[in-house]
Design brief:
The chain is mainly alpha-helical and 215 residues long. 58% of the residues lie in helices and 4% in strands. It has a three-stranded antiparallel sheet with strand order 2-1-3, with no helix packed on it.
């Protein structure tokens, strides 16, 4: 059990933390999902590895025992939206860490309300601007279930929706102004007219030759 004052770690570091490709992949995932540290990514990987371990152990069981225990695992994963209701254990083994990170409250708020960056969505969650149903949730890593996803909304006291609407209106106005300026520049562009050059030099040379012949 261990000492409750010093709980067991819920994450494991990668075996090769100094691998260049792994480091670049981790940094890309951190920026995509707005994670604060690599520890949050390692927690998601550890959780996913435990789910895969359960799936592999179910595949090694006999058919009767497997049919009894497999629906329990599949129902729990379908509840949080990781797999569909008719998924199999092969689908569980094909899950990636990004599939688990997309079920975070921070990611769903970022996609639903149109924040500019996932870090803005994280700040909105931490500062208690987000509600799930009737309760305020201020944990960005909270795993949202499929039923709770429809009930994500702003708190009544939050002014973020007004700010987002103003930003959208300003972006629409600037885009319309840019379209008008481009149309005006195309209309005001002068047409290139063909200029006829008078043939004065050739006429003068012909008159001079005629005068010399008469002389």
């Amino acid at each position: 059990m261990g000492d409750p004052k010093y709980p067991r770690r819920a994450w494991r570091k990668p075996k090769r933390p100094l691998n260049y490709d792994l480091k670049m992949e981790e940094l890309k995932t951190l920026g995509t999902f707005g994670l604060r540290t690599k520890r949050e990514l390692w927690k998601a990987r550890t959780k996913l590895s435990s789910v895969r371990k359960q799936a592999r152990s179910l595949l090694a069981l006999e058919q009767d025992v497997r049919e009894e225990k497999e629906p329990i695992l599949m129902k729990s994963l379908a509840k949080i939206g990781l797999v569909s209701s008719d998924a199999t254990l092969d689908d569980v083994l094909n899950l990636q860490v990004t599939d688990l990170l997309t079920r975070r409250l921070q990611t769903l708020v970022f996609k639903k309300f149109g924040f500019k960056t996932p870090y803005q969505a994280r700040q909105a969650v931490v500062h208690r601007h987000i509600m799930i149903g009737d309760r305020v949730v201020d944990i960005p890593s909270y795993t949202v279930t499929a039923v709770e996803e429809e009930n994500i909304r702003f708190t009544p006291e939050s002014k973020i929706p007004e700010i987002l609407e103003k930003i959208k209106d300003s972006q629409v106005e600037t885009s319309e102004e840019d379209e008008n300026t481009t149309e005006n520049t195309v209309e005001d562009k002068p047409e290139t007219s063909s200029v006829q050059v008078p043939e004065t030099k050739s006429e003068n040379t012909s008159t001079d030759l005629s005068q010399k012949q008469t002389n």
